Automatic annotation (TrEMBL):
<protein>
    <recommendedName>
        <fullName>CRISPR type III-associated protein domain-containing protein</fullName>
    </recommendedName>
</protein>
<dbReference type="InterPro" id="IPR052216">
    <property type="entry name" value="CRISPR_Csm3_endoribonuclease"/>
</dbReference>
<feature type="domain" description="CRISPR type III-associated protein">
    <location>
        <begin position="259"/>
        <end position="432"/>
    </location>
</feature>
<dbReference type="Pfam" id="PF03787">
    <property type="entry name" value="RAMPs"/>
</dbReference>
<dbReference type="InterPro" id="IPR005537">
    <property type="entry name" value="RAMP_III_fam"/>
</dbReference>
<keyword id="KW-0051">Antiviral defense</keyword>
<feature type="domain" description="CRISPR type III-associated protein">
    <location>
        <begin position="24"/>
        <end position="200"/>
    </location>
</feature>
<dbReference type="GO" id="GO:0051607">
    <property type="term" value="P:defense response to virus"/>
</dbReference>
Length: 482
């Protein structure tokens, strides 16, 4: 009996220290933390706590996002996880084995569920556009509930550490890397992360360390953490973990951040009315929860995909569907035995429009036969006029052909040839490029500026960009040879 007890004791984790990390997560873009069911008043509602009726961020959702971040950091985007005691990575060390792994261990990190600070939510419209007719497809109109930017979630992590040593140091470093990703806003939560949803950040952390082996005061402080009136205080309180993971960042990203002026009025329809006194326009431009006009990531991605297909049909005929599916993700509604849905490698951020104003315009439908106005066909629209916007587009694991395609899309946006939003047939949605910064992993940062309508960029950058477009054109040659 004694031997069995000793064997069980040696097999335990022997927790010597508990690290409790707290911070406030703030959404910087809308987030859809869905409950997986269809709602009574909205097609895709958010998840709420049944007792408090407050928006809920599950600890399991946050753990999945952090684990995926560590995997991408160590092994690159969309790479299979390498498991095993001899090659244990930071993700497996911190979050334990995955389902079905008989040799995996339980995660030493405890992540609490978090409730938002208020119950208000936005309603966003969603629609699928037919690429040929450029109109909405039947049965593909829906709405979803999203949490607005500025929503706060109080986070709490608790890390169980063994006696100080190599294992404890690695666990601290793994958690420090994951928390650093949250602090820098590199981790997104919820659905539609590749379309600008779920961006978030944490400004500061508070780290409380409880030494359970050598300090009775710390043990009592941990036991009475929810009862501060008992008078027990931990000995060590910090604003960081004090360590950093010495790992190479394996993520490969091609990112363009381009600033544009609105050359013409812009109208992306909103489901929410415009608070403009007694007069309410029939159609208003989309705004976020702070009241700022925006260009949504879903709208921008839709027009980029449609234009990319036209470009590929010209320069890479025969490969357009394969390149589109690889870059924008494979359509989940066209599932087959050989083609499963895939995530988008193109990440499009939602962007606020700075400056400008809303202008209400009256329109009327004309009968082409009589030349007169249709009855009951007078309506008003409130597009966004003027202002500037910075659009951020990123590609994970980019090939040179991917980079060339994104640069061609940037050119069409820059020159106003690619309109965004609705009613583009009456001249709306055109942009005018001002400047752009291009980040390419392993390459120096390059800039493009517009000086009185003329583009300025270094000769070396021009040569590199042309090589990317040539790589895209060679996709057609490879298709012909095949």
């Amino acid at each position: 009996m004694k031997q069995a007890y000793q064997a069980q004791w040696h097999a335990s984790r022997e927790v010597a220290t508990r690290l409790v990390v707290t911070g406030t997560l703030v959404l910087t873009s809308p987030a859809h933390l869905g409950n997986g069911d269809r709602g009574a008043h909205v097609d895709l509602p958010i998840l709420r706590d049944t007792l408090e009726d407050l928006p809920l961020l599950q600890g399991s959702s946050l753990a999945g996002a952090l684990r995926n971040y560590l995997l991408a950091y160590e092994q690159g985007f969309q790479q299979p996880e390498v498991r095993g005691a001899k090659r244990m990575g930071l993700a497996e060390l911190l979050f334990g084995g995955v389902k079905g792994d008989s040799e995996g261990e339980q995660s030493p990190l405890i992540i609490d569920d978090a409730l938002a600070d208020f119950t208000l939510a936005e309603i966003r419209d969603g629609v699928r556009i037919d690429g040929k007719t450029r109109t909405a497809q039947n049965d593909f109109k829906y709405d979803l509930e999203v949490l607005p930017p500025g929503t706060h979630f109080p986070l709490r992590f608790e890390l169980l550490l063994p006696e100080e040593g190599d294992q404890a140091t690695k666990l601290r470093a793994s958690l420090a890397l994951a928390l650093d990703g949250l602090q820098r806003g590199e981790i997104a939560l919820g659905a539609r992360k590749s379309r600008g949803y779920g961006r978030c950040a944490v400004a500061t952390w508070q780290v409380v360390e409880y030494d359970l082996r050598h300090s009775h005061e710390d043990l009592l402080a941990w036991l009475s953490a929810e009862h501060p009136d008992w008078g027990y205080q931990p000995a060590q309180v910090h604003n960081s973990l004090g360590v950093h993971a010495q790992r190479e960042d394996k993520r490969k990203i091609f990112r363009i951040a381009a600033t544009f002026e609105l050359a013409t009025p812009l109208l992306i329809r909103s489901a929410e009315p415009l608070n403009d006194g007694d007069h309410q326009p029939d159609v208003v431009h989309l705004r976020d929860g702070t009241g700022q006009p925006i260009i949504s990531g879903t709208s921008l991605a839709g027009v980029l995909r449609a234009r990319a297909k036209r470009i590929l049909t010209t320069v890479a005929a025969g490969q357009e569907e394969a390149i589109l599916n690889s870059l924008f993700g494979r359509d989940m509604h066209k599932r087959s035995a050989n083609e499963q849905p895939s995530a988008s490698r193109l990440i499009v951020h939602e962007a606020q429009i700075a400056g400008g104003r809303t202008l209400v315009q009256n329109r009327v439908a004309i009968d082409r036969f009589t030349g007169g106005a249709y009855d009951t066909a007078l309506f008003s629209e409130a597009p966004q006029v003027g202002g500037t916007v910075t659009l951020t587009l990123s590609i994970h694991n980019p090939s040179d052909a991917d980079k060339g395609l994104l640069l061609l899309l940037l050119k069409d946006l820059w020159t106003g040839d690619l309109p965004i939003g609705g009613t583009s047939s009456v001249g709306r949605g055109r942009l005018r490029g001002c400047k752009a910064t291009i980040h390419d992993t392993g390459q120096p940062e390059r800039k493009i500026v517009s000086d009185e309508g003329q583009l300025k960029l270094p000769t070396e950058a021009r040569t590199v960009f042309e090589s990317y477009v040539v790589a895209l054109q060679k996709a057609k040659e490879r298709s012909s040879e095949a």
